[in-house]
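Service request form, structural biology core

Requester: graduate student, group of Dr. S.
Request type: structure prediction, single chain
Budget code: on file
Notes: please return the result as structure tokens.

Sequence provided:
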Amino acid sequence: MSAQTPRRRTPVSLDTDRNFDDLAPRFARNIYGGLKGEIRLAVLRRDFQDCQALATAGGKTLRILDAGGGQGQFSLQLAAQGHEVTLCDISTQMLQLARDNAAAADVTDVRFLHSSIQELADRVREGDEPAFDLLICHSVLEWVADQTGLLALLPQLLVPGGILSLSFYNRHGLIMKNLLRGRRPPILDGAFKPSAGSLTPTRPLDPQWVLQRLEQGPWELLCHSGIRVFHDFLLTPEGRAMPADALLALELELSRQEPYRSLGRYQHVLSKRLLAAQ
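Core staff response, request fulfilled:
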């Protein structure tokens, strides 16, 4: 029998925003499933609690936008608490997974929009959609072609004093994982081109670049944490055998301490929109 020619995957286009219609179930399983997902949600919940991101006078119901919300793992929990959640995504398959998750959790008061963040920002700017109290933008920025443009749009989606919860894939974490595997990271040479079947984000970000862009906008930084600051770097059987509860506790302990925070595979930033641009 002759050897088969290995199938070559087409690189993802860097000129357009990534649509996950082709990979939605796999994305759900690999990115949010298991211990990885537990760590992500634990850091987010801790940050929200510590920074009182949901604190409102008189128990006001918040208008929340989960922008590029995918399956809505975090925002559906907020909807279950009685907040008004709108979830938008450009992927119809991701929206269906979010609807399925909402139904499974018996969460009914959620609005699902097949829309890009940019289109929704236009509607808010034109007065066709009220601005939101809380904007969740998780694991979106690293898949967007115009990252600077998207960051500039985010304040327009919020009321003055509103809260932005932004998470993104960290360039430093990607480089470290390659180094630990004994490879020169292709991204150092500008040769990083994920294939169409890859779940590795197409445009990893330098946290300092993101923080500098936020500093230039109408934002007050409330919190900055790393997500999975060492979990993904456990390459030995001994490391992988660490009990899940001990690993999770250590992730939370180190997630805001340098240098561990800067190595997290993802970064999470909570910021408040100032009343006026500074």
